[in-house]
Structures are given as C-alpha cells and as structure tokens.
Amino acid sequence: MKTLKVLSAAVVSVVMASCAVQKSETPLSPTVAGPIAGVQITAPKTLEPASGSQIPGDKQPLTLLLENASSSGQRPLSYLFEIATEPGFNNRVFAQDNVPPGDAGRTSLKLPSNLTMGKVYYWRAKALDGANESPYSNPADFNVYTPVAFDKPSLLSPVNNDKVSSQRPIFAFADAPRQGSPLTVSYVIEISSDSAFSAKVAVWQFDETPGQTTFPSAADLPGGVQLFCTPAPLNRP
Question: What are phi and psi of 5, to 5 degrees?
C-alpha cells in the first residue's frame, strides 16, 4: 500500500509540471517573464491634431500623427492609439494597438471611419515592447465641427416692383437657411439699376437678427427708377 501511494503522488507531480507556462528571460524572445529591469521607454508626443484644433467634418477620416518614443531596450516598439470624448478616457470611441512605428521618427494612423461631428475629442498614445511600456502621451483635444453652408435668404420687401415713398426704404428678408453653427452672421446687400448687377448704386453690410433681418437704407437711393436688390449671407468668425 505504501508503494502505491508513492507512485500516485509521482504521477500527479508529472502532470502538474507539464501544465506550467515557461517564460523566457531572453530580451528578444516573444514571451518575456514580466517587465525587463532597467528598460526605459519615453512617452510619444502627440503632434496632429494639436490641442485646440478645429477640424471641419468634411476633412475626415482624420489621420493621427505622433513623434515616436525611444527605448533603452532591444525589443521593437509598437503603439496604442486612443480617442475619447472626455479627458479621463473613460468613454473611449476608438482604440488601435499594435501600430508599427513609422519612418523619420514619426508614426501616423488614419482612422477607419468618421467621428461624429459637433463634439470635442481627446487623443493620446503610448509605446509598448511586449514586456515594458511607456507612459501615455499628454492628451490633445480637438473639435470636429459641421462646416457652415448657407442657402439663399428670401427677400420679403420691397419686392415685385413695389413702389416706395421714401428714398431710404427698409429692406426685410427671412434669414438664410444654413447647416452648421456659425458664430456670427452678417449680410451684404447690393442695390443695382439693372438685373445683372453690373451697375451697382449701393453695397452695404450689416448683422443678422434672429428669424428676420431688416435694414434701413444707409443713404438716399435714386428716385423714379426701377432698382434691383439681392442679399447674401457671410459667416464671420
């Protein structure tokens, strides 16, 4: 009975040893037993988009560009890129790892799809060699905005050969439909004595008011003649 117990213990010992995972201590081995002592990897540096960048949505998909990290070790580096909608990176909208380093000390990554417009984003990166890793780069924030585009404003008065009693009529028009969120909108109104607007008699610029904009003539217009006018919107930063 004692002999059988010894054999049983020996068999169990062999089985357990066969399940052990062996990690190499060779620096360039695919598997390394934990971080390699003494290896220092510097943080990469975010270059583009730089912090505070304003990016029109029609310039997507974006390309992220960083300055490569450096390592005191022998193992090759790869990069992890991350994008989030807040600086703590708890709400990541994109992540890509195993990005190989680029040439000339810089690495770029083109996003596979467009980001949602009208939001502020933060991006960062870090370098890894499979055993050690760098700190994250300082995050850079950028805004992807909807490009501003205007349709024509609708002239309300005077229109259709209206006769006005004053040489300084008040022009009224419905504000121009638009996409995007312009900060400030102004209009240029042109007055001409011909429909081709080759003989302009006045050109004025003024600010938009919500919904409907009115503008009283800033100078006397010619009396007793047919005049033509056209307003056009301007987006001002």
Answer: -65, -40
Judgement on whether residues 123 and 212 belong to the same structural domain of the protein: no
Structure tokens at 216: 């009283």
Round to whole Å and give the CA distance between 15 and 12: 5
Percent of the chain scored above 90 by pLDDT?
68
Domain count, the chain: 2
**What does the pLDDT read at residue 6?**
40
Task: Please determine, for residue 25, whether its predicted confidence score (pLDDT) is greater than 80.
Answer: no
Mean pLDDT over residues 65-72, rounded? Answer: 98
pLDDT band at residue 10, thresholds of 50, 70 and 90?
very low
Distance separating alpha carbons of residues 132 and 138, to the nearest angstrom: 19
Domain limits at 62? 45-145
Are residue 114 and residue 183 in the same domain, yes or no? no
- The long-range contacts involving 167-170, CB below 8 angstroms and separated by at least 24 positions, are 167/217, 167/220, 167/221, 167/222, 167/223, 168/216, 168/217, 168/218, 168/219, 168/220, 168/221, 169/216, 169/217, 169/221, 170/214, 170/215, 170/216, 170/217
Q: Does 88 share its domain with 120?
A: yes
Evaluate if pTM is beyond 0.85.
no
CATH of the domain at 107: 2.60.40.10
